Amino acid sequence: MVKICCIGAGYVGGPTMAVIALKCPSIKVVVVDISVSRIAAWNSDHLPIYEPGLDETRGLGAGKAADLTYWESAARMIADVSKTDKIVVEKSTVPVKTAEAIEKILTHNSNGINYQILSNPEFLAEGTAIQDLFMPDRVLIGGRETPEGRKAVQALKEVYAHWVPDDRIITTNLWSAELSKLAANAFLAQRISSINAISALCEATGAHVSEVAYAVGKDARIGPKFLNASVGFGGSCFQKDILNLVYVCECNGLPEVANYWRQVIKINDYQKSRLVNRIVSSMFNTVAGKKIAVLGFAFKKDTGDTRETPAIDVCKGLLGDKAEISIYDPQVTEDQIQRDIVMSKFDWDHPVHLQPMSPTAVKQVSVAWDAYAAAKGAHGVCILTEWDEFKELDYKKIYDSMQKPAFIFDGRNVVDPQMLREIGFIVYSIGKPLDQWLKDMPAVV
C-alpha cells in the first residue's frame, strides 16, 4: 500500500490520517472533504478541531484536501476516478450493511476495476483521540471471507502493524465489524444511563452516587470506567448509534431488543429534564427573567465538539421558562453556541454549508469570555462540562458577584459541595444528598 485517500476531514479522519502519516512515512496520505472552510483550516496553523496532541502530529500527507459530497456520491466519485484496483475502507460510524451498499455502487460502476470493501470502525474518544490512536485497545478490520477479501484485510493490517501489536489487530467479516462499533457505543452509553438512573435513587434516599459507583466499580467484572453520574451523555455517536441499533432490531423483527436499547436514550433524556426541573423548582418554581450562568457547553472536556451535548437541551429547557442565560466554554465559539441552540436535532450531521442558515441570535442567550463574567449578577450557576479549570475557580468571588440566594447546580460533580455550602451557596450535585432547601422544594419531572 503506497497511498491512502481519506474521505472526511472531521473528528475521525483528521486525527487518524495524521497518525498514519506520522507512523507510516512510506505511505502518501491525502484527505478530502466537502467543507471548503474545513479544508482551509487543516491547511493553516489553526486546526478545525480541538484535540490534545493533534497540533504536534505531522506527517508527509499533512495539508492536502479536496471537495466531495456525501458517502454515496463519494462512492460514485471513487468509481469515476479509479484507474486501478482499490481497497475502500469505511472508517466512521455507519449503519450496518453500509459496506454492502458501497460495494453495490462500486460494482455497478466498476468499468473492469476490482474493489474490496473493508470496515475499519474507529474506537476513539474525543479528548484522548491521539493517545487512543497511538496505543489502541484494539484495531478491528472486517472484510469479505474470500481470497480477495482476506488479501485486502491483510494489506490494511500491515499499515497498522507499523505501530500496533499483532495481538491487538482483530479481523472479522464485514457485518461483525460494523455491528461491533454500534454495540460498543451502546454498551458504553448503557453504563452512563445505568449510573444516572442510580443517581436519581441516591438523591431520593440520601446515598452518595460517587460512593455507590466506587463500590460497584471495584467489582472486577464491572470495572470503574463510565460510572461517573452526570447530566447525561452527548457526542455525535452514542445516541445516533443506539437509534440505528433500534432501527436494525425493528427491521429484523426484534421489537423487545429494540425497546431495551431505546430505554438507554429515554433515561438520558430523563436526566437532562431532571436537572432543568430541579433548577426551576429551586428558584421558587420560575426562572423567568433570572440570569443563569452556564459553565461548559461542549459535550465533555478537552474537546470543542458540541454535537448532542446535554447543554443544548438544558439551555432550551431554561429558555422555555424565559430564563436569561450567560454561557462560558473555553473551546466553543459564540457562533457555534447560538447555532446549536436554534438548530433542529441532527442538523449538525450535515456539512456546515448545507445546514440551515444561522438565524438571528437568541436574545436571552449571551456568551461570556470567562466564568466570572458569566456568573456576575446571576441567580444560579449550572456546570455542564467537566473542564478542569472549573475545579480551580474562586467560588467566593463568584458568590459575592451573584444575586442571593445563590445557587450552584453541578451537573458533572466537579466541585466539592461542602466547600460551596460553607461559602454560602445552595448546592445541587447529581446523585448527592440534597440540601434542606432542595428537599423543601421538590422537583417534579
Automatic annotation (TrEMBL):
Coiled coil stretches, renumbered: none
Pathway: Nucleotide-sugar biosynthesis; UDP-alpha-D-glucuronate biosynthesis; UDP-alpha-D-glucuronate from UDP-alpha-D-glucose: step 1/1
GO biological process: glycosaminoglycan biosynthetic process; UDP-glucuronate biosynthetic process
Group of enzyme by EC: oxidoreductase
GO MF entries: NAD binding; UDP-glucose 6-dehydrogenase activity
Species in which this protein is naturally found: Zingiber officinale
Entry protein name: UDP-glucose 6-dehydrogenase
Pfam families: UDPG_MGDP_dh (PF00984), UDPG_MGDP_dh_C (PF03720), UDPG_MGDP_dh_N (PF03721)
SUPFAM superfamilies associated with the record: 6-phosphogluconate dehydrogenase C-terminal domain-like (SSF48179), NAD(P)-binding Rossmann-fold domains (SSF51735), UDP-glucose/GDP-mannose dehydrogenase C-terminal domain (SSF52413)
Protein residues bound to NAD(+): 8-13, 33, 38, 92-93, 126, 237-240, 307
Role summary: Involved in the biosynthesis of UDP-glucuronic acid (UDP-GlcA), providing nucleotide sugars for cell-wall polymers.
Record NCBIfam families: NDP-sugDHase
Keyword Repeat found: no
Keyword Oxidoreductase in record: yes
Source species taxonomy: Eukaryota, Viridiplantae, Streptophyta, Embryophyta, Tracheophyta
Positions of the catalytic residues: 237
Gene Ontology cellular component terms for the protein in this record: nucleus
Keywords: NAD, Oxidoreductase
Catalytic activity: UDP-alpha-D-glucose + 2 NAD(+) + H2O = UDP-alpha-D-glucuronate + 2 NADH + 3 H(+)
Family to which this protein belongs: Belongs to the UDP-glucose/GDP-mannose dehydrogenase family.
Parts of the chain that traverse the membrane: none
Ranges of residues in domain UDP-glucose/GDP-mannose dehydrogenase C-terminal: 293-417
